[in-house]
Design goal:
single chain; seven-stranded antiparallel beta sheet; 29% helix; 23% strand
Amino acid sequence: MSPAALDATALPGFPPPRRGKVRDIYDLGNRLLVVATDRISAFDVVLSPGIPGKGAVLTQLSTFWFRKFGGLVPNHLVETNASAFPPELAAHAGLLSGRSVLVKKCRVVPFECVARGYLAGSGWKEYQKTGAICGVPLPPGLTEASRLPEPIFTPATKAESGHDENVSFEKMADTIGRDLAARLRDLTLAIYSEAASYSASRGVIVADTKFEFGLDEDGSVVWIDEALTPDSSRFWPASSWHEGGSPPSYDKQFVRDWLETTDWDKTPPAPVLPAEIVAGTLGRYLEAFRLLTGGEPVLPA
């Protein structure tokens, strides 16, 4: 019998965490403990049930990418091995192992930094209306899943609740300053290009992905949150990619597609995910991990 999904954490002796859509974040003073639960969201609503083991896959895949591209930009990782966490966390090592990391505290830049190499999702919808994405003009005649002439940077606001909103680079620059905005744009496209090239060699297309960045106490840029996971990216099998529709994927598009077959109005509560959708989602996340890393994640017992 497979373990149940971890929907939330509570560590006795620690203040309640700040909960995101997926992660529980504990303030340890000079560091943060980030625990990836098995929650899954779609259309900005947390769904039920969770996907057992998903948090471990996200954490370990992010760690893979942070380490792989550590030379491009510093990241927030301090410690990834739960057995090496501070002694006061030792009693929780079983819960934390494989799904948590100790990270630097940073001041979060309030924008999602999105790179797109293919036309999909909200970008496809915007292109159909305007011929552009976030103010970036694109050639006429593209279809869904078309490869773009070159990757583009399309930032979005980070909403505490509700939907993130695609914005122009100029809007981002007006908010955080042009120099920082340009630095984040260039970093986003550099990481995406490296990741897309590597992934292609493993038979996976990274259609788009989003990154988050923060500033440390010295004002230096730090890559934070998660990195190139099925939650934050569109991963397509290169062998079955096609234009003119939504290709098969190794990400949570599988869940979105199922939700679109229901009469749900995209406000809470969402329909309960059937067992076959839960299993199919985990299977896709595991396949992405295997293809991209060449290994197996360590899942909770």
